[in-house]
Specification:
By secondary structure, the protein is an all-beta fold. Among the domains are: 107 residues, no CATH class; 43 residues, no CATH class. The protein is 2% helix and 27% strand. The protein has one helix and 31 strands. The longest helix is centred in the N-terminal third of the chain and has 10 residues. The chain is rod-shaped, with a radius of gyration of 38 Å. It starts with a strand and ends in a 9-residue tail after the last strand.
């Protein structure tokens, strides 16, 4: 007959679904801020310039019932990685599974084990195939049926065929993790794993969202596959690098956040966060914010700011191509240093050197980095204008090809 302990009626055994059943369905990407990567080539998120308004906008874009958390929209009622609050992760104790139900982590014992002491700190510590806990916590086996048939879950007087009496319990030595191959030969349970006995030989399997990525059985399933960038979702599946972006792994999926000052303005995941948002008049402070044809993106107190330019724009500042020595005729075309005794000026977009003798310099290599590098007054290959070559027996004199026999007087 059976004797039931008083503790039997207060045994806590949760029956929630396993955590991996909820992981994929509880996370959605933030539009324009975070894009989950479910393939080998993760998408990249469009980063915006930091501001208090941006945070409010991100919160507003999450679907009803979801909350922004570390750049993602999550369901705190079901997400085991953010259960009830951002960063609150459900971790399954020994011989149990876990899930997030209504914002609370709930554990459930695996078949054959029970949380008979009511404490989840040591997990489901009791085998339900013993005479002390036969099929359920607190169900004792006593004479005339003192043994427990672990397979059938009932008290018996002798063990059926294929089972062995170990103490007061009838067990199958080929499959019992507490009596594997022999009585009292308990299979070890490495970190984040569940003991398994098959054909009388001990092994273990990783719990959901954990992996034995180093192949070392001694340290168990050492990697959290739900949050590790180098092993995101499965061992060896690293989140790919993206330009000007940092990778995160959440619920086993790769996602990316653009570094400060950069944005994924073309929506192309392959080239990462390709656009600089500081000093960029096409994307000033955030993707798509254009400063217009004659606007510049300058650094203001609150970050990049569009300003209107009276003459011309050079990206991050305003310029006057007709008169500015550093941008004479175009952005970056700085007039070369003037010869001794002269002063460099920009007149109608051309570099001038003094009033009496105009050096007429030209940008013949079309490289703004070295400005107007060619002296059109004395270059035999660019005489008077870029590309004008003086013929055989000629030389360039004050911007005109003349015979070498002719006297060439310097400008006075």
């Amino acid at each position: 007959m059976r004797e039931r302990d008083a503790a039997a009626d207060t045994t806590l055994v949760d029956s929630a679904a396993p955590d991996d059943a909820q992981a994929d369905s509880s996370v959605a990407p933030l539009p324009d801020a975070q894009i989950d990567d479910r393939s080998s080539a993760p998408d990249v998120v469009d980063a915006r310039a930091p501001s208090s308004d941006a945070a409010a906008d991100s919160a507003a874009t999450c679907p009803v019932g979801m909350t922004p958390c570390n750049g993602q929209c999550v369901d705190p009622n079901r997400d085991p990685a953010n259960c009830g609050a951002c960063g609150t992760r459900c971790v399954a104790p020994a011989n149990a599974t876990t899930s997030c139900v209504a914002g609370t982590c709930e554990n459930s014992c695996v078949t054959g084990f029970g949380n008979c002491d009511g404490a989840w700190g040591n997990g489901c510590e009791s085998s339900l195939g013993t005479a002390t806990h036969c099929a359920r916590c607190g169900d004792r086996c006593a004479a005339p049926t003192p043994s427990c048939d672990a397979v059938a879950g009932r008290c018996i007087s002798s063990c059926p065929a294929g089972q062995t009496l170990c103490g007061s319990s009838c067990v199958e030595l080929t499959s019992s993790p507490t009596h594997c191959g022999a009585c009292d030969n308990a299979c070890p349970t490495p970190a984040n794993s569940t003991a398994v006995c098959a054909a009388g030989i001990c092994s273990s399997v990783c719990r959901a969202n954990f992996g034995n990525c180093d192949g070392n059985a001694a340290n168990g399933c050492e990697v959290d596959l739900a949050r590790t960038v180098a092993h995101c979702g499965r061992c060896g599946q690293a989140c790919a690098a993206r330009a000007n972006a940092s990778a995160q792994c959440s619920a086993g999926l790769c996602s990316y956040t653009c570094n400060t000052g950069f944005g994924d303005c073309d929506g192309n995941a392959a080239n990462g966060c390709e656009s600089a948002l500081d000093g960029n008049p096409a994307h000033c402070g955030r993707c798509g914010l254009s400063c217009g044809v004659n606007g510049a993106c300058t650094r203001g107190l609150g970050g990049p700011t569009c300003v209107g330019c009276a003459q011309n724009t050079c990206g991050s500042y305003c310029a006057n191509w007709a008169a500015d020595v550093r941008d004479c005729g175009g952005c970056g075309y700085r007039c070369a240093a003037a010869p001794t005794g002269y002063t460099a000026t920009c007149n109608a977009g051309r570099c001038k050197y003094g009033a009496a003798c105009d050096a007429h310099r030209g940008d013949c290599d079309r490289d703004p980095a070295n400005g107007y590098e060619t002296d059109l007054n004395g270059s035999n290959t660019h005489c008077g204008a870029c590309g004008t070559v003086c013929g055989v027996g000629q030389r360039c004199c004050n911007g005109v090809c003349r015979l070498t026999s002719q006297m060439c007087f310097p400008c006075a």
